[in-house]
Amino acid sequence: MERRGFVTLFVLSAIPNPVFDMAGIAAGMLRFPVHRFLLACWLGKTLKGVAVAYLGSMSVSWLERLLG
Fold it and tell me: Is 18 helix (H, G, I), strand (E, B) or coil?
């Protein structure tokens, strides 16, 4: 967390897992800067949301072809 904290937080917030809570606790204990923590989390969660939305839109056409 001390060397690669931003990347660690970004990756753990981009994938759905319960380990992210532990990373947040570790970041707080190591006094990771709040603005960097929030930026890493925001970027990771945004990437995850865009990926889910894109896959959802692609699945609609796939289901139409499958059922139609």
Answer: coil
Q: How far apart are CA 64 and CA 47, in angstroms?
A: 26
Q: What is the DSSP letter of 3?
A: T
**CA–CA gap between residue 23 and residue 27 (Å, rounded):** 6
pLDDT digits (tens, 9 = 90+) for 41-50: 999 999 999 9
Round to whole Å and give the CA distance between 38 and 21.
13
Is 44 strand, coil or helix? helix
Q: How far is CA 1 from CA 9, 20, 21, 58, 62, in A?
A: 8, 12, 13, 36, 41
Query: Is-above-0.85 flag for pTM?
Result: no
Q: What is the DSSP letter of 15?
A: S
- Between CA 58 and CA 52 the distance in angstroms is 10
